[in-house]
Write a structure and sequence with these properties.
About 20% of the residues lie in helices and about 30% in strands. The chain is α/β, with parallel strands linked by helices. The protein is globular. It comes from Eragrostis curvula. This is VOC domain-containing protein. Pfam families: Glyoxalase (PF00903).
Amino acid sequence: MASGAVRPAFAYTVVYVKDVVKSAAFYSSAFGYTVRRLDESHKWAELESGATTIAFTPLHQRETDAITGHVQLPDSPAERGPVEICFDYPDVDAAYRRAVDNGAVPVSAPEQKNWGQKVGYVRDIDGIIVRMGSHVRE
């Protein structure tokens, strides 16, 4: 890093969704997060997720579409978007069951990987892939 350069802090992951209120409620029930903020316009919600905020905003809105372009969704359920959300849990099996019991679509049940992590996959209510895994300590 160049001398005098500022080291940024990773602050937000913004997830573009069909319905901000439904997505915030879904992530709260399925993955165990608390909704920290729900804007009264229902165009922004944040989860209490530690140092990095997970936020939701509508798929299409004037503020972003005109500046950065339209969100492109996969053409079919067999495809996935270019981003995967990953959560670590001490008990991946219990977390996976909770997610599915609360509306997540099962993709792959948790299994032990040869690199030491247990991993399962679901889709959220917008079709976004969510990886649920154990934390691997080096």
